[in-house]
Write a structure and sequence with these properties.
Elements (H helix, E strand, L loop, with lengths): L5 H13 L3 H11 L2 H14 L3 H42 L3 E2 L8 E2 L2 H18 L1 H26 L9 H17 L2 H28 L6 H27 L7 H37 L1
Antiparallel strand pairs: 1-2
Helix pairs in contact: 1-7, 2-7, 4-5, 4-6, 4-10, 5-6, 5-8, 5-9, 5-10, 6-7, 6-8, 8-9, 9-10
Amino acid sequence: MQPMTLYEIFVGNVTVRCGKMRQRCAFVAKEGEGEVDLLLQRLLQVGTQLPPEFVSLLALIVALLSLKLFQSFGGLAGLNLYNGLVICLANIQVLQITKYTFFKDQLPLGTVLFATIYLSNICIAETYGAKAGRQSVWLGMGAYAFFALSMLLSLAHLPAEGDAAFLCEARQNHAAMLRIFVPSVRIFVASLASFGISQFTNLFLFQFLQKDSLTKNSKLTSLATILASNVVDNVVFCFVAFYFLAEVPIPPRVLWSGYVWESLGVRALTVGCVLGGKFLLEKIFRWRE
């Protein structure tokens, strides 16, 4: 018999303690939901009925608009803040798995959002220089380290005892957060390795290609560096997170076919949308000026 994990032990404990209060908890939760929460749940239910490609495209549009707003109002500080937020969000989204219509295997999320960081770093390198780009890389990794450590320390607190409905609900929330953030150590190490290697590859290739007259065109340089960085990031992250550090490693064949190559297909489509979005945003804001 395999030993139970911390999450399984805690969830079992919560189930036993709250068994008598389960109906009361459900009633209180439903009664306590405001109109805004109910509206959001209905919208999310509608979203689950839409093709996942459409939802991912919508998420990309939101990310690109947010990136432009961060840059317009915050400059370099805004871009650094955007990178830090995206790293934290993408490493939570990677726990969610979906099935795109045009791919054979299921894919983890986070790919679309994370790809926009490369555009952000290109903007930093073009406007503020390579030194600022390297600083942004370290700031992004530091932001995720702080985020992951803070959440783990928060989960280290012993949940309050008691049979009240709100305490039962709080213990269930704690169990749910354990499910999300306990894998953060493994994902954190994989993210550091893949993010650092891919971002420095991104900056190195950008500087190298800018020196060559044949590849000095900014759009061609951006395309080449983003594609190369996405390949490096995806390969490193998948094998570190799901093979070398995983409790139950995914077979390399499955990693290569689904997690690497099909995810790269999603990233390739994302890169095209990112460059197209950049071009459209530049035209729109120049026209307004």
